[in-house]
């Protein structure tokens, strides 16, 4: 059985089509090896949020995998704007009345199977857009339940690669117990969650992990630093031990889809007083202002 795909617009290798009609070769290296990269860009009121930063990361990921960037920045922007409009039209709305999540993927292209990179291939470019889920005020007031696990992924987590089996297994561990995310540790130190960055609040200070090869530098990484500065909240990036995470006053997640989310339960125990805390409230409010201002 395969899941029925919705009739949503998408883009594949130069043409707009719909999800049920978009077809890629079985020999695409994205399919065979997960040999590609991706981006998830939130778009509010028809405008991509922090798009330049997403494009810069897309470029960095492509460089790491030695895949040529098949489009200029202007072409990427044009593609995304067109996709936002087409998705909005499919919902019978102007783009300005939608909240969307654009997915961009580039794989190395199609070739007979060989682990080596095979230069000169035409990259496969795929893009789609869908509704961005907005958490309800009740969900936000409750905060998220998360679990902890060992970080068993590879050591190039800074590349936003489509090789995501590690993230899938990690995320399923939390899904199995009805939790939102799996917060991971490598050698006793915090790395990140299966598809979010993690922040720890202690004594009014926001702590994040160093930007190295063990974590994806989320687009909200820099944004949170700015929001902290604007709110007068001390901010520091350094290694964070498992004990510090377990003793945190607050724990936060950040990602394109979660924005900033408070973690209220960890491994079945309350974080702080078990409710989203004051630093979360400040940063969430700042995030909403940043969206308005963009
Ligand atoms: N995930 N770390 C990992 C491993 C991620 O997959 C993500 C994003 C982040 C946060 O990055 P950003 O702030 O740029 O969204 C951190 C996306 C949303 C996904 O895979 O769907």
Strand content: 25-35%
CATH superfamily of the largest domain: D-amino Acid Aminotransferase, subunit A, domain 2
* Alpha plus pi helix count: 8
Bound molecules: N-(5'-phosphopyridoxyl)-D-alanine
Mean pLDDT: 98
- Give the CATH architecture of the largest domain: Alpha-Beta Barrel
The structural class is alpha+beta
Quick tags:
binds N-(5'-phosphopyridoxyl)-D-alanine, 15 strands, 9-stranded mixed beta sheet, alpha+beta, 6-stranded antiparallel beta sheet, single chain, 294 residues, D-amino Acid Aminotransferase, Chain A, domain 1
Task: Give your account of this protein's structure.
With 294 residues, this protein is of the alpha+beta class. The chain folds into two domains: 9-131, Aminotransferase class 4, branched-chain amino acid transferase, N-terminal domain (D-amino Acid Aminotransferase, Chain A, domain 1, 2-Layer Sandwich), CATH 3.30.470; 137-293, D-amino Acid Aminotransferase, subunit A, domain 2 (D-amino Acid Aminotransferase, Chain A, domain 2, Alpha-Beta Barrel), CATH 3.20.10. Helices cover 30% and strands 28% of the residues. The chain has eight helices and 15 strands. The chain has helices at 29-33, 51-65, 73-90, 137-142, 165-175, 219-231, 242-246, 278-293, and strands spanning 9-12, 15-18, 36-44, 47-48, 99-107, 124-131, 144-150, 181-186, 189-193, 197-202, 205-208, 235-237, 250-255, 259-266, 269-270. The strands form two sheets. Strands 7, 8, 9, 10, 11, 12, 13, 14 and 15 form a nine-stranded mixed sheet that branches. Strand 13 (250-255) and strand 14 (259-266) form a beta hairpin. The longest helix has 18 residues, at 73-90. The chain is globular and about 50 Å long. The protein starts with 8 loop residues before the first strand and ends with a helix. N-(5'-phosphopyridoxyl)-D-alanine (PDD) binds next to helix 6 and strand 13.
């Amino acid at each position: 059985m395969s899941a029925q795909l919705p009739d949503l617009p998408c883009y594949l290798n130069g043409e707009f089509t719909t999800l049920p009609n978009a077809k890629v070769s079985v020999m695409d290296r994205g399919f065979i090896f997960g040999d590609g990269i991706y981006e998830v860009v939130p778009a509010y009121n028809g405008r991509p949020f922090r798009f330049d930063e997403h494009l810069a990361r897309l470029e960095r990921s492509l460089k790491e995998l030695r895949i040529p960037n098949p489009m200029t920045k202007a072409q990427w922007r044009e593609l995304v704007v067109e996709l936002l409009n087409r998705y909005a039209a499919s919902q019978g709305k102007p783009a300005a009345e939608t909240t969307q999540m654009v997915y961009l993927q580039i794989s190395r292209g199609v070739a007979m199977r060989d682990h080596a990179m095979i230069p000169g291939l035409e990259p496969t470019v795929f893009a789609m857009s869908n509704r961005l889920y907005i958490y309800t005020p009740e969900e936000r007031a409750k905060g998220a339940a998360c679990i902890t696990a060992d970080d068993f992924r590879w050591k190039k987590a800074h590349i936003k690669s489509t090789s995501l089996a590690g993230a899938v297994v990690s995320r399923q561990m939390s899904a199995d117990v009805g939790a939102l995310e799996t917060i991971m540790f490598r050698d006793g130190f915090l790395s990140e969650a299966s598809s979010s960055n993690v922040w720890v609040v202690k004594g009014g200070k926001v702590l994040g992990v160093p930007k190295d090869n063990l974590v994806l530098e989320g687009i909200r990484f820099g944004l949170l630093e700015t929001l902290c500065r604007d709110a007068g909240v001390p901010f520091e990036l350094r290694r964070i031990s498992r004990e510090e995470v377990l003793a945190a006053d607050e724990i936060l997640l950040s990602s394109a889809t979660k924005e900033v989310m408070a973690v209220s339960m960890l491994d079945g125990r309350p974080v702080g007083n078990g409710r989203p805390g004051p630093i979360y409230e400040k940063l969430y409010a700042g995030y909403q202002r940043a969206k308005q201002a963009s």
